[in-house]
């Protein structure tokens, strides 16, 4: 990888484990300055300590992005520390099972709304102040004001009802896909790009339950043969790094699906 690709770019990553942690490490290795925002203070501080020990310029900001007030305050503090925000990688989110997510006929309104807050509201809370900052700052050397990468899921468009009947989570990821398309169209003329990565089954804290289920492991081995099952978080981080770099300066409104073959293989794998 190029150490220079993200050199001196001010980037914000939401989340501090799994894909978010892999991305923070990747971005730091490619020369970015990093603000990491997470609701888990210990995990966020631990990740930033790891990055700074490796000579990265990084700082932790603790906030629950499902809470717009506190979340916005943390994002504004991150922007102020960076001075210029060149990119945002929206990762914060997670499974809604503990919130009551499941098949729609069993899903309470509270569980649905809580899962959407966890997975979609977090994107909006982080993106809105970042967009305002990008609109106010001048173009960079490539003539652009910034880039946002959102995190979707193959489950929004490639459902597996036998294993993943989490309809609120899939709905949230579908909302993020629509948000990506519409905001990309709106801000393109202003020099701001918005894209999305859509991972399949990925090794992370969120997937611990799935990785202990024999049926899901068998499914992943058949549907994701390129990665021999569950995808590494680093594979998603690599795609996000590309989309946040100047190498992707002509790309907006697009989704990179990182699925190990899932979407092009039949249901049976």
Give an overview of the whole structure.
The chain is an alpha/beta fold and about 270 residues long. It has one domain (about 10-260): Rossmann fold (3-Layer(aba) Sandwich), CATH 3.40.50.720. It has eight helices and seven strands. It has helices at about 20-30, 40-55, 70-80, 110-135, 165-185, 210, 215-225, 235-245; strands at about 10-15, 35-40, 55-60, 85-90, 145-150, 190-200, 255-260. Strands 3-2-1-4-5-6-7 form a seven-stranded parallel beta sheet, with helices on both faces. Helix 4 links the parallel strand 4 and strand 5. Helix 1 (about 20-30) packs across helix 8. The two termini are about 30 Å apart.
The biggest beta sheet, please? 7 strands, parallel
Given the C-alpha coordinates, what overall shape results? globular
Query: How many structurally independent domains?
Result: 1
Within CATH, the superfamily carries the name NAD(P)-binding Rossmann-like Domain
CATH architecture identity: 3-Layer(aba) Sandwich
Helix content: 40-55%
Task: Please outline what is shown here.
This protein has 269 residues and is of the alpha/beta class. The protein contains eight helices and seven strands.
Question: Top keywords for this entry?
Answer:
269 residues; Rossmann fold; 8 helices
Topology:
Layout: E1 10-14, H1 18-29, E2 33-38, H2 41-53, E3 57-62, H3 68-82, E4 87-90, H4 109-136, E5 146-151, H5 167-187, E6 192-199, H6 208-211, H7 214-223, H8 233-244, E7 255-258
Parallel strand pairs: 1-2, 1-4, 2-3, 4-5, 5-6, 6-7
Helix pairs in contact: 1-8, 3-4, 4-5
